[in-house]
Fold these 2 entries.
Entry 1:
Amino acid sequence: MKAPAMNQNKLAELLSKSEITSVVNAYFRALDEHNFDPQCFAAIFTKDAEVIRPNGLSLSGPEQISASHRQSFARFEGSQHVAAGHDISIDGSTATVRANLIAMHMWQGSRTDANSKDNFFVAGGVIEAALVQVGDQWKISKISHAVTWRAGGFKDMLQTGRPSTQD
């Protein structure tokens, strides 16, 4: 027995939402695993994709995005990004995503010891992304992250690139 057309449409929408969630999560997994291979980023991003960092810096294209992240994440011994609550809207072959993000970064030399605030910083905020369907695959065309709070050793980070060693 064939499912009614409405059920087929709902199934297609759910499948697309699952694929979109996986692409967004793949980006943060690549960051956490320090996988900055341009081919990895080309599988996640469109050729002209834009990443807008919390400080407003804009990066374009998988190669520039991966190279910039490689340089930026060199100061971290480890990181963990937790994206949740993916709110996805699909319009044909385009989609938008709004999700909450909590990210923890352990500074080099911290031996992943979170007992001292100078060893890490954690931030929470919102990501907004636009995706497009390229063939049968969803890819990120634009993603931005707005930080709403920070904690840990972050006082001097914006000026020096390193955490504060004083309270």
Entry 2:
Amino acid sequence: MDTTHSHFDVSRSLQAVEAIEHDLARLTANLTECQFQAPPRTGGWSIGYCIEHLTLTGNGFLVEWDAALKAAAKQRLRSEGPFPYSLLQRSILMFAEPPYKMKVATTKPFVPYSRRSMDETLRRFQKMHYELAHCLFASQGFDAARIKVKSPFLSWISYSLGMSFDLALAHERRHLWQAWRIRTKFTGEEKCA
């Protein structure tokens, strides 16, 4: 799927949601609980922590999307588009996509500390993803360029509604790519900690 975006499009973002869910299913197919929980030998997050991080950040975005859509409904900020991205917005989105060249540390609320079973971790992610798709559906007909969404990472930054959706999806692809890199290094001798 081409992830270079010049504008926001609800149907393309919904397709991206579905593609991410398929990628996650492929990633975790035939994965043992130990492999899901095992951190890489070189250090860093396990596959489970990558997915938990996505759930935490997705839930952070959900709060902001809900608030932004409620405010937009009151203000009657409606438009059918188009919703083009500026050069700066396109650059930010490209930076968020894998493969990445530079790691960026997350803020404390989005660091995964809880180790949950693979089933529970995947259930939590799928619940968040269902709600993300619901927000995308709900955004149809709203002005995705004029509506502002506060960043769940840094409260002093805000994005257009459309960009916030595409940024969240790019972030998911980024960490699934990270999880795939972990999986390709498995030797079959991973130990449960």
